[in-house]
Amino acid sequence: MEQKTHFKINKHLSGELIELKEGYCKIRLVTTSEMITDDSGLIHGGYTFGLADYAAMLAINHPNVVLGGADVRFVVPVIKGDILIAEGLVIRTEGKKIIVDVNIKREEEIVFIGQFICFAPEKYVLENV
Questions:
Q1: Could you tell me which CATH number the domain at 11-119 has?
Q2: What does the alpha-carbon distance between residue 109 and residue 39 come to, in Å, rounded to a whole number?
Q3: Claim: this prediction has a pTM higher than 0.85
Q4: Structural contact between residues 48 and 78, judged by C-beta atoms closer than 8 angstroms
Q5: Number of Cβ atoms within 10 Å of the Cβ of 21
């Protein structure tokens, strides 16, 4: 399936697409020293959230998709060198509103779960700005 959105995203910081199907995607992110918050190697949660957001966008794969909200849980800490796999799955569509479940794993361990409320409007959000 062809990717239709988020072409210019930084794959080094947001993840690289592994698999894309109708209503589903899988993305891989290797955490790096650019992402750490302190000497312990803890990765800032914003990078984990960014990976999850990107997975939600690609699961929908609409050129105008945007995030409206999210209910998320950071389950365990992520550290430098972790290889994260995010899976996004569209679970419901209500008109232009689309609900996507996203989970992120490090090997078999879940590190993040979330439900993303997205919208796929007819026009791009910045079209008239």
A1: 3.10.129.10
A2: 23
A3: yes
A4: yes
A5: 11
